[in-house]
Amino acid sequence: MDKLVIEGGKPLSGSIVIQGAKNAALPILAASLLAEGTITLDSVPRLLDIEVMLNILRELGCRAEHVGETVVLDTTALHTSHVPETLMSKMRSSIFLMGPLLARFGEAQVYQPGGCAIGERKIDLHLQGLEALGAEIEEIGNRIVCRSAKLTGTDIHLSFPSVGATENLMMAAVLAEGRTTLTNAAREPEIQDLQRFLNAMGAKIMGAGTDTITIDGVAELTPCRYKIIPDRIVAGTIMVAAAATRGAVTLQNTQPAHLSSLIHVLRRAGVQIVVDGDIIKVDSAARPKSIERIVTSPYPAFPTDLQSQVMVLLTLADGVSIMKETIFEGRLKHVGELSRMGADIRVDMNAAFIRGVTRLYGATVEATDLRAGAALVIAGLAAQGRTIVEQVHHIDRGYDRIEHMLTKLGARISRFSPVPNNEPAR
Ligand SMILES: CC(=O)N[C@H]1[C@@H](OP(=O)(O)OP(=O)(O)OC[C@H]2O[C@@H](n3ccc(=O)[nH]c3=O)[C@H](O)[C@@H]2O)O[C@H](CO)[C@@H](O)[C@@H]1O
Ligand SMILES: C=C(OP(=O)(O)O)C(=O)O
Asked: Binding positions for UDP-N-acetyl-alpha-D-glucosamine (predicted)?
């Protein structure tokens, strides 16, 4: 297992171009199955999860190449609607295949998806929505078989604005007969990106970005070329890393509107942020101020995917802050690791009470999930001394070689791998 070794205490400085969004690229890759032919996707980040998705698509019969940041996907020879369990279990996003396969084949055979251990992560809303569209669903142990001779548009109210369920149902409904209306839909920017992509292929979808999405079914979709939006969580991670190391960093290729809740939080912490078009400049020389209370909630509120990273900043703040996690019940595992680095955090149920300290100290810590891992990297950059972050494969799910990104910004960080030259081919 790879490790990251970080010599902390150096402010980040310089400029960085933000990668395309994992959480937009994954459903869009799955949605590509809805059209027959060659789809070209630009700004697709080189990540473990993307590799897994491409391997699933190949297993289903597609030809897929990822050259630089461009994926060329030919779906012409798609021949099966059965996703192998070994690949399904590698990540949560494998569940995105269910909607498109059902729409295209009238059948999808999948398994319970895998992914980071951040909570129970049920898929009941996905399944209920597909049933409402006319699918018959059989669950046999881990295996899920969905069948429908014909999907028919209907009104679906989500009891929670699940990002994945919203996306899966958009993809299933796009070829259904008639109109589907999703209410209490998730409003994340990645859902808007999926709408733009599907519409570019000929779909008729309106409303993504609001809580009501209307999908008028069409007979078929045609392939297109499409560019994925920038990753707001990677941008946010770098912004927090700049602030925690009291550095000055310029981020290019961002969509600042997607980061407004984080920008608001960072400004409250005393960090200077300047926005200019798609550029964000972060500058922070002083000790951060504590923040009375931050609560993670669906977009446009503060994102769970930036909770652990911002918590690191608050461990160094002047005063006591509270961070409440409302989306995933198992997403405070980094607290134990941060405490090993000298942070003063007490957890009560889903809230972390963070008393700022003047310094974190390097330690050997373990990434328990993707964003927890990113948080530990930030802590290591800000800490005095050497930090070793283990279980880096979690971080590789969402950051394109995080050590390269940070080295460009002056960080002293390197990867140690038991297998020589194991970097993915580029
Ligand atoms: C690939 C992707 O886009 N991942 C993001 C997506 O995950 P994901 O799509 O899995 O997140 P959801 O919005 O679906 O999940 C949010 C909450 O709803 C619950 N739930 C969800 C579906 C369901 O059928 N039943 C149910 O109870 C989940 O257990 C969780 O507690 O949104 C999350 C919340 O912003 C982000 O942290 C993830 O980075
Ligand atoms: C939880 C995340 O992703 P996923 O839903 O793919 O597990 C994340 O990106 O932080």
From this structure: 92, 305, 327
- CA–CA separation, 380 vs 400, rounded Å? 18
Element (H, E) at 107: strand 107-111
Q: Is 16 helix (H, G, I), strand (E, B) or coil?
A: strand
| CA proximity to 268, closest of 249, 294, 245 | 294
pLDDT in tens, 235-246: 999 999 999 999
What's the Cα-to-Cα distance from 162 to each of 1, 121, 398, rounded to whole Å? 33, 10, 20
Q: Which CATH architecture best describes the domain 22-227? A: Alpha-beta prism (3.65)
Which carries the bigger pLDDT value, residue 424 or residue 330?
A: 330
Q: Are 409 and 249 within 8 A, CB to CB?
A: yes
Interval 108-120: pLDDT, tens: 999 999 877 898 8
Model confidence pTM above 0.95? yes
Give yes or no for residue 159 CB within 6 A of ligand 1: no
The reply to whether ligand 1 has any atom less than 6 angstroms from the CB of 92 is yes
Domain boundaries, the chain: 3-19+230-416, 22-227
**414-416-418 Cα angle (round to 5):** 170
ipTM above 0.90, yes or no: yes
List pLDDT tens digits, range 98-151. Answer: 999 999 999 999 999 987 789 889 999 999 999 999 999 999 999 999 999 999
Alpha carbon distance 88, 93 (integer Å): 8
Are domains 3-19+230-416 and 22-227 of this chain identical in fold?
yes
Token pair of 128 as six digits: 């209920």
Give the C-alpha distances (Å, rounded to integers) separating 87 from 83, 91, 367.
7, 8, 22
| Residues recognised as catalytic | 116
Measured in degrees and rounded to the nearest 5, phi and psi for residue 151 equal: -95, 140
Residues in the chain: 426
pLDDT band at 426 (very low <50, low <70, confident <90, very high): very low
What stretch of H or E contains 338? Answer: helix 334-340
Distance 403 CA to ligand 2 centre (A): 20
Cα(420) to ligand 2 centroid in Å equals: 28
> Which atom in ligand 1 lies closest to the alpha carbon of residue 126?
24
